């Protein structure tokens, strides 16, 4: 989770560039967006969640070069849905004049989930290149002797799968750092500087990425919308939201910085009731769930000749040509 936050110096893209980036990030390729934990926090969460061999795990998790941190590089850093930003909201019982509606906040959360759904679908398709039609490991497609380049066009299937998973998991990890799902507020009245905390320990029900990936967009968004509690919020950050509109500032809204984020030890919400530890635990459990769901999808999608099982082996082993006979 980067502090918009986890890594520093996120650069800003133009509105036109962001519109194009959103179109790519929020839609799947036909089968045809911090503001987040810092890179080190993303690394710790990802390493704790994945029982992979060291070279492959580093390719996914490394604070500077890992796939899970690729969305904290320009121009992705400036796109709010890639970091679950801008789903800020205070219910009328707390602030009847709050400038955003529950529906507007929910729309931003759904945009965050949507990019993960798209990345999941992409990763499943890319996995087809890991093994041949008979289930044999394709050594040229699974070799990590040279670094992957997270450029949306890798020449190796393993790099492509890792990139799609990493970019899909980043916003999910950020959700726990940027929202009030796991945390608790300070004593005193609810306000812009002290929004509610839901204090949940179980993973959020609406990043149900595998199930949603098999559903029509209208159907899964309806399902997810019904699972979002009224008081759930993430902070406002002056980046581009899902409509490619960039907030000039967050005046009159719950801000990400200094209030709701738990990206760094300097964040006020960090210390209250172990909020940082709670966010980290939530994100770790979530990525464990996402990896298990991805494995299950590979087994279902590629059953012949044990192809799905061998794909999982390739993705977890550093030398799959030898280790996944």
How would you describe what is shown here?
The chain has 325 residues and is mainly α. Helix content is 45%, strand content 0%. It is built from 13 helices and no strands.
Quick recap of the structure?
With 325 residues, the protein is mostly helical.
Main traits of this protein?
mainly alpha, 13 helices
Reconstruct the topology from this structure.
Layout: H1 15-25, H2 39-49, H3 54-61, H4 102-127, H5 139-142, H6 157-178, H7 209-213, H8 217-226, H9 256-260, H10 268-271, H11 275-301, H12 307-316, H13 320-323
Helix pairs in contact: 2-3, 2-11, 4-6, 6-11, 11-12
Distance between the termini: 36 Å
Beta-strand content estimate: under 5%
Q: Which structural class should the secondary elements be placed in?
A: mainly alpha
Radius of gyration: 19 Å
Helix content: 40-55%
- Identify the overall geometry: elongated
Q: Give the SSE string.
A: HHHHHHHHHHHHH
Total helices: the number is 13
- The whole-number mean of residue pLDDT values reads 89
Q: How would a crystallographer describe the biggest sheet?
A: none
**Quantity of strands, as a count:** 0
């Amino acid at each position: 989770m980067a502090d918009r936050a986890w890594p520093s110096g996120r650069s800003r893209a133009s509105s036109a560039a962001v519109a194009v980036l959103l179109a790519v990030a929020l839609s799947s390729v036909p089968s045809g967006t911090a503001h987040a934990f810092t890179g080190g926090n993303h690394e710790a969460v990802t390493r704790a969640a994945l029982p992979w061999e060291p070279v492959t795990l580093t390719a996914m998790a490394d604070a500077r070069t890992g796939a899970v941190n690729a969305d904290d590089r320009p121009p992705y850093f400036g796109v709010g849905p890639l970091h679950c930003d801008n789903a800020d909201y205070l219910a009328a019982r707390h602030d009847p004049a709050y400038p955003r509606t529950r529906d507007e906040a929910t729309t931003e959360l759904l945009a965050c989930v949507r990019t993960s759904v798209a990345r999941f679908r992409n990763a499943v398709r890319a996995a087809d290149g890991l093994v041949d039609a008979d289930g044999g490991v394709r050594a040229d497609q699974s070799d990590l002797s040279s670094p992957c380049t997270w450029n949306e066009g890798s020449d190796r299937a393993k790099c492509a799968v890792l990139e799609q998973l990493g970019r899909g998991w980043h916003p999910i990890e950020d959700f726990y750092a940027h929202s009030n799902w796991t945390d608790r507020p300070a004593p005193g009245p609810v306000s812009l500087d002290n929004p509610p905390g839901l204090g949940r320990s179980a993973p959020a029900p609406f990043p149900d990425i595998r199930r949603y990936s098999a559903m029509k967009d209208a159907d899964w968004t309806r399902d997810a919308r019904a699972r979002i509690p009224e008081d759930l919020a993430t902070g406002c950050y002056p980046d581009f939201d899902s409509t490619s509109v960039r907030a000039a500032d967050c005046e009159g809204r719950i801000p990400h910085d200094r209030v709701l984020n738990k990206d760094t030890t300097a964040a006020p919400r960090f210390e209250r009731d172990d909020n940082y530890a709670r966010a980290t635990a939530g994100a770790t459990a979530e990525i464990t769930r996402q990896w298990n769901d991805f494995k299950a999808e590979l087994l279902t999608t590629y059953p012949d000749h044990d192809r799905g099982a061998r794909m999982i082996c390739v993705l977890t082993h550093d030398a799959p040509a030898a280790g996944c006979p």
